[in-house]
Amino acid sequence: MEYFAKLGCLLIDHGTEGLRKYFQNHILCGQTPQQFFTTNKTDIDDLRHGRHGCKRLINKRQYDLIFPANNQPPNLKVFDITLTFLLIRQFQVGNTRPNDPVWNDPAKAAGAPQDMQDIILLKFERNSLAHRESTDITPSEFEQKWTTISSAVMRLEVLTTEEIQGKFLIKYASYVATWMRWKC
Predict the structure, then answer these.
(1) Domain named DZIP3-like HEPN: which ranges (predicted)?
(2) Which of 8, 23, 81, 173 is the most exposed place for a label (fewest CB within 10 A)?
(3) Cβ–Cβ < 8 Å for 154, 10
């Protein structure tokens, strides 16, 4: 359970932050989130309602985060990894189409740019962790996943090596201890 908790903190807190940072720097391209979403409202509406050949990919809760009530600006800090990944995939500029299988499997992303590989890996690992049958993770599996995930987080410039090795583990020690008390 301890390894599960550490990987969860790394993925949810810092993996999501990495995706948000990428979205800010590569998708918004200097626009505010409100400007970007307003400009792309028709496409987002299509994703919400499943129109014009689009699958219904955005639910009401996610749509309300993108377009908050009372014309308030959206707060990217409340976008989870799933919504942020979806928006990156749908609005990514380049040769990779939103329905390309590369988005679903890190192994298929081998020829893609490194930041795209990292984004795909973080989403894949988050889903793998969230849909496990058990919270048990062996030490060797933890080491492999920790190395892979933390490397992606560092390449996306969310945490440095020193933070990964020191501050992160200290910061989350109390969370891990609490989760360990809940262990079934």
Answers:
(1) 34-164
(2) 173
(3) no
Question: What phi and psi values does residue 79 have, to the nearest 5 degrees?
Answer: -80, 125
pLDDT value, residue 184: 46
Q: What is the pLDDT of residue 46?
A: 93
Three-state DSSP class for residue 58: coil
pTM of structure: 0.84
Q: Looking at the 3D structure of the chain, how many domains does it have? A: 1
Is the distance from CB of 166 to CB of 27 less than 8 angstroms? no
Does the pLDDT of residue 53 top 90, yes or no?
A: no
Residues 146 and 6 sit within 8 Å (Cβ to Cβ) = yes
Residue positions counted in the chain: 184
Using DSSP, state whether 19 is helix, strand or coil: helix
Residues 6+ apart with CB under 8 A from 112: 96, 102, 120
Range of the domain at 142: 2-182
Banded pLDDT at 79 (limits 50, 70, 90): very high
Residue 125: exposure state from Cβ atoms within 10 A (0-12, 13-18, ≥19): buried
The pair of structure tokens assigned to 115 is: 């930041």
DSSP string, 30-57: TS-HHHHHHHTHHHHHHHHHT-TT----
